[in-house]
Amino acid sequence: MQINEGKKRFLPLLLLGDEEETMIDRYLERGELFALYDGDLKAVAVITREAETVFELKNLAVEPKAQRQGYGHYLIEVLCGLYGREGNKMLVGTGDVSSALDFYAACGFVRSHIVKNFFTDNYPLPIFEGSTQLVDMVYLERKL
Ligand SMILES: CC(C)(COP(=O)(O)OP(=O)(O)OC[C@H]1O[C@@H](n2cnc3c(N)ncnc32)[C@H](O)[C@@H]1OP(=O)(O)O)[C@@H](O)C(=O)NCCC(=O)NCCS
């Protein structure tokens, strides 16, 4: 379901997808927030419009206990179907870590381009995914 009011109540889960609240604030206001419930809350996602027919998945997070059960993939399929009515491309940017890259590859995304030093330039503190420090942003895209 799309959430239009009280978006910040989803902050705890949004912080799992992006640990910097000031970055979340930047896209949460202009973006569209979706929450997936299956009984209770399972996942959230934020989509922004980046150009006339280009959308970007800015944040995707699945409740830790609900991960690897298909919720992330399902939410991406629903959102690509929804935004396919208006757009022809969905972008997603992620750190250069295999867990995220493998997940997006499984969801039909292919590599687009790299934004060098995105994480070191835009985040006040170093961001780690496991033991890997995130430096560059890897952009992937999926045709809608
Ligand atoms: C990354 C994330 C969104 C994936 O959602 P999910 O619901 O756990 O993933 P799904 O169950 O839909 O996985 C679909 C497929 O993606 C791949 N995949 C998912 N997580 C993966 C991982 N950690 N490593 C490798 N492949 C993975 C698998 O092929 C999986 O199919 P399988 O379960 O049959 O093996 C979720 O784990 C999450 O919120 N993680 C923490 C926050 C985060 O890192 N978000 C941003 C990603 S940039």
Number of strands: 9
**CATH homologous superfamily classification:** Gcn5-related N-acetyltransferase (GNAT)
- Helix-strand pattern: EHHEEEHEHEHEEE
Helical amount among residues, as a percent range? Answer: 25-40%
Determine the mean pLDDT: 95
Strand content: 35-45%
Number of helices: 5
Low-confidence stretches: none
Taking the alpha carbons of the first and last residues, their distance comes to 20 Å
List each distinct ligand once: coenzyme A
What does the model show?
- The chain has 144 residues and is an alpha+beta fold.
- The chain has one domain: Gcn5-related N-acetyltransferase (GNAT) (Aminopeptidase).
- It is built from five helices and nine strands, in the order βααβββαβαβαβββ.
- A seven-stranded mixed β-sheet has the order 1-2-3-4-5-9-6, sandwiched between helices. It has a two-stranded antiparallel sheet with strand order 7-8.
- A hairpin with a 2-residue loop joins β7 and β8.
- The chain is globular and about 35 Å long.
- The two termini are 20 Å apart.
- The model has no long low-confidence stretch (mean pLDDT 95).
- Bound molecules: coenzyme A.
